[in-house]
Structure formats: C-alpha cells, structure tokens
Write a structure and sequence with these properties.
Layout: E1 3-6, E2 14-19, E3 25-30, H1 39-56, E4 62-66, E5 73-79, E6 83-87, H2 91-105, E7 114-115, E8 120-121, E9 124-125, E10 139-140, H3 143-146, E11 184-187, E12 206-212, E13 217-221, E14 227-231, E15 235-237, E16 248-249, H4 254-264, E17 269-274, E18 281-287, E19 296-301, E20 303-304, E21 310-311, H5 321-328, E22 341-342, E23 367-375, E24 379-386, E25 390-397, H6 404-414, E26 425-429, E27 436-440, H7 447-454, H8 461-480, E28 493-495, E29 501-503, H9 515-518, H10 532-537, H11 542-557, H12 569-577, H13 590-599, H14 610-624
Parallel strand pairs: 16-17, 17-22
Antiparallel strand pairs: 1-2, 2-6, 3-5, 4-5, 7-10, 8-9, 11-12, 11-15, 12-13, 13-14, 17-18, 18-19, 20-21, 23-24, 24-25, 25-27, 26-27, 28-29
Cofactor: Zn(2+)
Organism: Stegastes partitus
Catalytic activity: L-tyrosyl-[protein] + ATP = O-phospho-L-tyrosyl-[protein] + ADP + H(+)
C-alpha cells in the first residue's frame, strides 16, 4: 500500500491519500479500538465520504467490499484514480485516522513526497492551476515524514500525550455573539406598532437596543429619541454581512427559491440564498431563454478560491459576495444571462411572537371572521383579521373538548416558542366561551391536503425532501426546548405561500378530554403514527415524535396516502408490534427510505435525534442538488 499522507490545514477536516506512480491503491480500513467503540462510525463516515466525493469529481471507479479477511477488518476500498480525498467529521477524528494510517505505511518504500492541498475543480487544481489531473503535486509533505529510515521493521515509539502536533490546528471559530445593550440594528421590514408600548420600525433605518426583554422582543430607541418594543426578527445588526441586501434570502431552500422566482416570472430574476451545505451560498436565476413562456431556474454555487475570493465564473474573482453580484448584474460571464431583477421574499414580514410584547390575551372585539377553513379535533378553524389588517387563523375551541385552565397556562409558554418552521401562536381569547386560539395564517393550508390537491405539477425529489427538511428543523427546535409534539403528522403541518412547511398543534393533545383520542384503543387516537411504546404503554417522548416523523416522511413521498391503508387499527397495532414497517413509496429512493426505517427502530434509544435527522437530510439534499 503506497500512500502519501498530508496534514494540510487548507481543506479541513481532510485526510489526503494519493497513489504512487499511477498504480491502483487498496486502502484497508481496520476496526481500530478507538474510545467509545466509535471505529464503526469512523469507517462508515469515511466510506460515505469516499463515495460522495468520488462521484462529485467524476471518479467513479471505487469498489467497497465488506468484511474482508477476518471480522476485525471492516472494509476494503479499491481506487484506481490519482487523488483520493477522505473527509473526517471533526479535526480530532482526522488526527486519529492519520496517526493510524501512518503507522500502517511506515515501511513502504515508494511514498510520494508531494501532494495537491486543494481540489481539482473545473479542469484545474485550485492550488497551483495545473491543468493536468495527474500532474505532480505542488506542496512537499511534512519533512518529518522523510526522516524515517525506510525499510526498518522497528515499530514507531508511542506518541507522548503532551506532544503538540507538528502543524498547529486552525483557530477555533469565535462563539456567536448574542444581542447586546447599545447595539445598533437596521430594520429589515416596516413594523407598524400593534400596541401603545411598541416602537414603529421603518425599513433600512437604524435603531439602538436599550434592553433585551427576551429572545423575541427588545426595547429600542429610534433616531428621534422615541422608545418602545420591537420584534427581534424584524431587525439585523448593522453591517452584519449579507442581511442588508434585498437579494439575499437567508432561510430559503431550492424549491422555495424556484417557486418565488417562477411566481415573479421575470427573465433574469435572481436571488442569493444559503446552500444546503453550511457556509456556502447559491445564486438562483430565472431565465426565459429559448422563447419559453414560463421559463426555468438555474442554480449557481458561489465558489471560493484558496485566497478567500468569490467567483461564479473562472477569471472573475471578487473580495466580497456583494461585489460579485454587482459585477454579474452587468455581465453574464458564463451564466445563461446576467442578473437583471432582484427577487426578494422580504415583501412578507415574518411572524412575531405574539401581537405585542407581553400580550397573550387578545380582545375578541378586534377579530374579524372572514371564512371557515375547516373543522378539527378542537372545533372550527376560521380565517380572519386582527385589527382589520393582520391575517390570522382563529380556532374556536368546542366546549368540553379541552382542559381549558391547564391549556391557558401552557399557552403563555407556547407563545415564546418561535421558529420559521413552527406555526406561531399569537394569543388566546379566554374571557368568553368558546375560547379562541389565534395563530399565524398560512395560505396553502394543511400539508396533507396540499400533497393530495395543492401541487400544480409533479413534485421533484428536491421539493419532497425539502418539505421533510422543514419539518425536521421545526421539530429539532422543539426538541432543543424539551417540547414533545405527541401528534406529529401531515395533517398537523401547514404550508405557506412560499411552499415552506410549518409544524402546528404541538403539545395540544395533552389537553384533549375525549377518551377516544387519549386512549390507544380509541378510534381517534393517532395509532398509525405511534411507536410500540406508545401503543402498549402510552409512553411519549421525543423518540416517539421521531417515529411519527418517519411516518410523516412516508406520507410526503406517497403524496398523502393513509399509512397501513389495508389494515384496520387493531391489525396495524398487532403487525407493527411484530416488526411490520411501511413499504418504500415509489417516489422515495433507498437513501430516503433508510431514513424512514431508522426512525422506526423498535427500541426508542436506537432512533436518531431530530438534530441528527436535520444533518442527514441536509447531506442528502446536497447530493441531489
């Protein structure tokens, strides 16, 4: 095995393996006894990275054979191209792998002494711009590797625990700074005061923060000396990167960008959004080239040079993304057309946590009922207006259906929960009967109905997975707040005008008085979304929410079919307890289905967390894009 190993910090975390003299390399990955029995995780991470990376760089000749030559050898990777990049999850894991692999190759006589510290992209090495893929490396390996006596069979001495690595690790990123008193912020949206204690916000004007009341509301002063409360999600810290540009849509995924661009239907309409890969950005561009009436969308990843400059097309590098966008507003330079029209999602301000700071009891006289949206477990839901101008959804709670006193106390806590993938609770009306629950209104309605009837065309793989990503991110937030949903399903998610999916009715099932809903033997109990521990022992946890999330994914990929549609509830409980799982929907590939199956592990502790699911779904989205 002829391997050259680098410890470059330019592409981190990275383990670099290269082939000597153009020969095939067999990389044996052993089950080293790392702490906490994590070797399997290391190997699986590396195998996944090898496969994904080779596909990305058109190097497909990788063969993975499981369990080679004994149980303690986990995998063999056979690779016959020049560079092999292996990504480790963290710097610590990378260092452990390098240490072990160096021990394995210390007797090899033909180790290559040069390597490329950067990737091969668009027909050239980013580090040295050589245009031959098999070109000799441009950087010499660590000189300490050359000082070893080749051919010696004497084992290496153990590495002292206090020894510093030969090359210092990159500095840890600074902890994100929270809001501070005295900080200057810029309004991203207009905010008309909802109560007498609120301060009006005017878009693009500056304000000084006087008090951090909570995560959702701050007290601020404007340039005229007026003071009052403002919603924290309407402002951004001054000079805080891209947030001040109208073309920047931070929390927007690929399908939402396409939906927004197509709704504007402008040739050259564009926006910049965060990529599904952390720290990366994408330009989404709508074009009507070729005489198309509806047009099509193109997505361009903003690349970074080794010197930290940004580019969309080669030979046009810029120090900032803003400079890059300004250039391409006047020059196509490799794109289908130049960036002509800014398309922004800031026309719709975000939801606020409540209808004013400290306001949770809403006067029903300020509510106007416009039309009925449907009937749910708790009663009728209507679309209406608050103070004649704010869109709201109003749930009129059927008397006797809810433990009202307990819910009213809980509502004060629920109002403080704010996330872009949760339906915002604005307040309640408890002074009369029936009680009203006032929430954010989402124009595309229930996700289940949207899957069956609301999609205007056949959904793409990316669109379906992004729906699942939205739900996973909302649930990850609830998980971080130690909040259990208890009734997660497509019927309890809503879709807004941009196609964003938001979770609703979290925690409300605890206050239902209907025995048919509370008992697992009842006809209204969400049996088909419940894991064995809930069906048998009514044991709810975030892990039971994970099971339900897997079923929700199945609903998304089956476009709203009923889970276990051929079984009644009794048969379904019996079969699931014996190990039956939902079949793979036609629109779900094996990787998507494996996520579902992982959510349906029989033992709750073996299921992933929502935070882990978010990362898994994001990685899969990156592959699809």
């Amino acid at each position: 095995m002829n391997l050259g190993l680098s410890m470059t910090a330019q592409v981190l975390p990275l383990l670099y393996v290269t082939v000597a003299r153009g020969k095939c390399v067999s990389l044996w990955i052993y089950g080293f006894n790392f702490s906490d029995d994590t070797s399997n995780i290391f190997c699986n991470t590396i195998l996944k990275s090898i496969t994904c990376t080779c596909k990305r760089f058109d190097s497909l000749r990788v063969k993975i054979t499981q369990c080679v030559d004994g149980m303690w050898i986990l995998s063999q990777v056979i690779y016959d191209e020049g560079p092999l990049y292996i990504f480790a999850k963290t710097e610590e894991i990378r260092a452990q792998w390098i240490k072990k692999l160096k021990e394995l190759v210390r007797f090899n006589k033909d180790l290559m002494q040069k390597y490329h510290p950067c990737f091969w992209v668009d027909g050239a090495w980013l580090c040295c711009q050589q245009e031959v893929k098999q070109a000799m490396g441009c950087k010499v390996l660590d000189r300490k590797n050359e000082s070893r006596r080749r051919g010696s069979r004497k084992p290496l001495p153990p590495t002292p625990t206090e020894e510093k690595p030969g090359r210092p690790l990159p500095p840890q990123p600074a902890e994100p700074q929270g809001p501070t008193v005295g900080m200057t912020v810029i309004a991203e949206y207009n905010y008309p005061p909802m109560t007498a204690q609120d301060l009006e916000l005017r878009k693009d004007e500056e304000y000084t923060i006087l008090e951090i009341c909570d995560a959702n509301w701050w007290r601020a002063r404007d340039k005229h000396g007026q003071e009052g409360y403002i919603p924290s999600n309407y402002v951004v810290e001054a000079d805080n990167g891209l947030e001040k540009y109208d073309w920047y849509c931070k929390n927007m995924n690929r399908s939402q960008a396409e939906q927004l661009l197509k709704s504007e239907n402008k040739d050259g309409g564009f926006l910049v959004r965060e990529s599904s890969k952390a720290g990366k950005y994408t330009v989404s561009l709508h074009t009507k080239g070729g005489g198309e009436t509806s047009g099509s969308c193109k997505h361009y990843n903003i690349c970074t040079t080794p010197k930290g400059q940004f580019y969309l097309a080669e030979k046009h590098n810029f120090n900032t993304i803003a400079e890059l966008i300004n250039y391409h507003q006047h020059n196509a330079a490799g794109m289908v057309c130049r960036l002509k029209h800014i398309v922004s999602n800031r026309a719709r301000p975000p939801s606020t946590a409540g209808l004013g700071y400290g306001v949770w009891e809403i006067d029903p006289r300020y509510l106007t009922f416009i039309k009925e949206l449907g009937t749910g477990q708790f009663g009728v839901v209507k679309y209406g207006k608050w103070q004649g101008k704010h869109d709201v959804a109003i749930k009129m709670i059927k008397e006797g259906s809810m433990s009202e006193d307990d819910f009213i106390e809980e509502a004060k806590i629920m109002m403080k929960l704010r996330h872009e993938n949760l339906v915002q609770l604005y307040g309640v009306c408890t002074k009369q009967r029936p009680i009203y629950i006032v929430t954010e209104f989402l124009s595309n309605g229930c996700l289940l109905t949207y899957l069956k009837e609301g999609l205007t065309q056949h959904p793409t793989a990316v669109q379906l997975l992004e729906m699942c990503k939205d739900v996973s991110e909302g649930m990850a937030y609830l998980e971080s707040q130690q909040y259990i949903h208890r009734d997660l399903a497509a019927r309890n998610c809503l879709v807004d005008g941009n196609g964003t999916v938001k979770v609703t009715d979290f925690g409300l099932s605890r206050y239902v008085l209907d025995d048919e809903y509370k008992s697992s033997a009842g006809s209204k109990f969400p049996v088909r979304w419940s894991p064995p521990e809930v069906l048998l022992y009514c044991k709810f946890s975030s892990k039971s929410d994970i099971w339900a999330y897997g079923v929700l994914m199945w609903e998304v990929y089956s476009l709203g079919k009923l889970p276990y549609e051929r079984l009644n509830n009794t048969e379904m409980v019996e079969q699931v307890s014996r190990g039956l799982r939902l079949y793979r929907p036609q629109l779900a590939n094996e990787k998507v289905y494996s996520i579902m199956l992982n959510c349906w592990q029989d033992k709750a502790e073996e299921r992933p967390t929502f935070q882990e699911l978010v990362l898994t779904v994001q990685d899969l989205l990156y592959e699809l894009q």
